[in-house]
Amino acid sequence: MKTATRDILYNEISRFNPITLEVSPEEPFQVQTELNTGSWLQTIEDLWSPEKKSGSNPSSGCIYIRGARPGQMLAITILDIELAEVGYTASSPSENLYSDWLRKNEWGIISKTVKIEGGVIYWSDRLKIPVQPMIGVMATAPAQGAPRTIENGPYGGNMDIQEVTIGNTLYLPVFVEGGLLHIGDVHAVMGDGEICGAGGIETRATITLQVSLQERPPEMLWPRLETPKEIISIGCSRPAEDAFRIALQEMIKWMVVDYGFSESDAFLLLGQILHARCTQFVDPLYTYICKVPKKYLCP
Predict the structure, then answer these.
(1) CB 97 within 8 A of CB 194
(2) Read out DSSP for 109-147?
(3) What is the enclosing helix (H) or strand (E) of 88?
(4) Contacts of residue 241, Cβ cutoff 8 Å, sequence gap at least 6
(5) Which one of 24, 162, 201, 228 is separated from 275 by 20 to 30 angstroms, measured CA to CA?
């Protein structure tokens, strides 16, 4: 199976990045992701400190999808996420968003390194957390600019959505020939808000993916997600309410075009059955998602 390795890492999502892997539609391939802050974490004894950082959510290369052209979208199905055996979470005064009102005394640099084994995160001798692996960064190269891998936008990027996980499909717009897929920043688990700044439990991983090509609906301006039981719209902005408005608007358009609702009927129904939340409050733009169970998609 073809593999994008950690040998070449990019910290920008750019159409100018040299291609490191080329795959055909429907061809399974793997991506070996690096830790969000570089290669410093090797054993359970290693502890985070800011001077060890050598990158920010690096992408494992730049992946060319044969036949992808502007106006299409990549339907990226996540077949598997194999986690490394160690991970970490951390926060420091420069990265903590809540110092002015949450902390009464300065905490300094706080971090925790954990073992990951058998589908479990060993938080302590008494506390174990089931893994819920997710991919924080998935993006296609935009036609203009070269956003950093810590950024997000209509191209995807550092969206940090827990539902970008095994068995689900992420839809990303294609802006340039080949799509130029960038992937990184895997978490073993992550709570809503990503409040620590460093995850979630940040870790390396080997991801197995399969990409198909579809025509992008003209009304689709932001990435979309689909699970076996739900459709999920995405918006990224600041303040958080603007991110929510984008996600809500994208959901209504999706329901109208693909499922036959009128705008007003979709709006009224969403008032009863919508699930929505902010998945991260730490990136340059916040991420909001809107979720609708497929069982309700019948006008």
Answers:
(1) no
(2) SEEEEEEEETTEEE-SSS-EEE---EEEEEEE--SS---
(3) strand 86-91
(4) none
(5) 201
Q: Phi first, then psi: give them for residue 166, nearest 5 degrees.
A: -60, 130
User: Are 102 and 93 in contact, with CB atoms under 8 Å apart?
Assistant: no
What is the C-alpha separation between 169 and 74, in angstroms, rounded?
10
Q: Token pair for residue 229?
A: 């039981």
Nearest CA to 156 among 238, 72, 236?
236
Domains and CATH numbers, the chain: 3-215 (2.60.120.580), 224-296 (3.10.28.20)
**Residue 286 contacts residue 244 (beta carbons within 8 Å):** no
Q: How many CB atoms lie within 10 A of CB 36?
A: 27
Q: Residues 231-274: pLDDT tens digits?
A: 999 999 999 999 999 999 999 999 999 999 999 999 999 999 99
Q: Collapsing DSSP states into helix, strand and coil, what is residue 29?
A: strand
User: Longest C-alpha distance within the chain, in Å?
Assistant: 57
Residue 197 confidence (pLDDT) above 90: no
CA 181 to chain centre: 13
Residue with tokens 């870790």: 203
- By CB atoms closer than 10 A (0-12, 13-18, 19+), residue 129 is middle
Written as one letter, the residue type at 175 is: F
List, in sequence order, every residue forming a beta bridge with 76; answer none if it has no partner: 170, 211
Which pLDDT tens digit goes with each residue over 217-238?
999 999 999 999 999 999 999 9
Alpha carbon 12 to its chain's center: 15
d(CA 81, CA 89): 19
Contacting residues for 90 by C-beta, under 8 A, at least 6 apart: 48, 109, 110, 111, 112, 196, 197, 198, 199
CA distance 232 to 163: 9
Report whether 219 contacts 251 (CB < 8 A): no
Note the pTM of the prediction, 2 decimals.
Answer: 0.96
